[in-house]
Predict the 3D structure of the following.
Amino acid sequence: MGKTQKRVQTLETDNAAKVLGSRNAAAARTGAGDMEAGIGAGGCDEQILPSDAAGYIQEMAIELKDIAESARLSFLAYLLDLVIEESGMQKRGRF
């Protein structure tokens, strides 16, 4: 794994740690499974603000859209663009 890939992976796990909360940060950084991080077993212990979750989803969708466009997956890129728009509205509190 190259330096750039490691840096991207570190940023992604740090963002996940923010969403999951400090209690689950160690599990997110070590790449533990969803169940260990508390996602699949009824969610995490700390309350996540909808605007924070929407912001995280928007950031991830932007990265995924870039990948889809690079791979010439135009319909998938279009769907991710919709996710970006919707998560932006949710982030601003427009439900």
